[in-house]
Write a structure and sequence with these properties.
Layout lengths: L3 E5 L3 E2 L6 H19 L3 E9 L3 H9 L4 H18 L6 E4 L3 H16 L3 E11 L4 E3 L17 E10 L5 H10 L4 E2 L1 H12 L5 E2 L1 E2 L7 E2 L2 E6 L1 H5 L2 H5 L6 H7 L4 E5 L3 H14 L8 E4 L3 E2 L2 E2 L2
Parallel strand pairs: 1-3, 1-13, 2-3, 3-4, 8-14, 13-14
Antiparallel strand pairs: 5-6, 5-7, 7-9, 10-12, 11-12, 15-16
């Protein structure tokens, strides 16, 4: 039987059209997938769209359409773009699909049952464009460090993922497996972030409804990044086809832009540890394409 080779792009956020930055990652993944097929490997090349969260809900409101209509339109634009570039992806996942909802709820329940999710009050700073929380010292002149936009102060009862419990396990893991984050400079960035101390983070919201409900508390929907990262195990068959999942997982390469490194190299491996699942063999973070000195967005 040929070797299994699994490579992913990030799933791209379905609030606007694809651009050259998205194509940059996707073309890299396509080259890698084609190369491994030439070697006779059984390749799964995954890309797709991330379709839940406040940013999607607001984008839909601005266009006077439903969130589902918004994501249907934008997801189709990504499919068309990859078709025009002759991208050879084997799967295209949408986080509004039933298979993803089933896998997310199964994985959430496992992490919850293992004791790594608890209810608490959250008050902090939130960037809608990133769908991410920041501390005061992470802001630049009071603005989001990525999008340079104002953040919003959020206060509500949320479920928290106990990321702090994985600070030492992650340091030990990367000491034993330094090849799991590449290039070297990005691994050093990850280690520096972990050594500063990991904080538990909110993984649910009650202020929005456009998302996947928590299986043990449907009044909460899953925080978009926490849910979106799970697409990688969804496509590998988690919770549906154990034989396929055992063959496909762990993934060989997550190809990502550098701005989402901490989600993929800190949050995601900690989530997998919490679920007693194997960790990715490599998270590879590339730089940005710049036009006139500005990042393509």
């Amino acid at each position: 039987m040929p070797d299994s080779f699994y490579v992913t792009t990030p799933i791209y956020y379905a609030n606007d059209a694809p651009h050259i930055g998205h194509a940059y990652t996707t073309v890299h993944a396509d080259v890698l997938a084609r190369w491994r097929r030439l070697h006779g490997d059984d390749v799964l090349f995954l890309t797709g769209t991330d379709e839940h969260g406040l940013k999607i809900q607001r984008a839909a409101e601005e266009r006077s359409v439903s969130p589902q209509e918004q994501t249907d339109l934008t997801s189709a634009r990504y499919r068309d773009a990859w078709s025009s570039l002759d991208i050879s992806n084997d799967d295209f996942i949408r986080t509004t699909e039933d298979r993803h909802r089933a896998a997310v709820q199964a994985l959430l329940q496992r992490i919850y049952d293992n004791g790594f999710i608890e209810l608490a009050k959250y008050e902090g700073l939130y960037c809608v464009a990133c769908e991410a929380y920041y501390t005061e010292d992470e802001l630049v002149d009071g603005l989001c460090p990525i999008h340079h936009r104002p953040v919003e102060r959020v206060s509500e009862d949320n479920y928290f993922f106990q990321l702090s419990k994985f600070e030492q396990p992650l340091l030990e893991y990367y000491a034993a497996h330094p090849e799991r984050v590449q290039p070297d400079g990005k691994r050093n960035e990850v280690l520096g972030f972990i050594r500063q101390g990991l904080r538990d983070f909110s993984m649910s919201r009650t202020a929005i409804t456009w998302g996947i409900p928590l299986p043990w508390d449907p009044a909460h929907v899953t925080y978009v990044w926490f849910e979106a990262l799970m697409n990688y195990v969804t496509a590998a068959g988690f919770g549906v086809d154990q034989e396929l999942f055992d063959r496909r997982w762990p993934v060989q390469y997550h190809l990502i832009g550098k701005e989402i490194l901490r989600f993929h190299a800190v949050w995601w491996p900690a989530m997998l540890m919490a679920a007693d699942l194997p960790l990715p063999e490599c998270v590879f973070a590339h730089g940005w394409l710049l036009v006139g000195g500005e990042k393509m967005r």
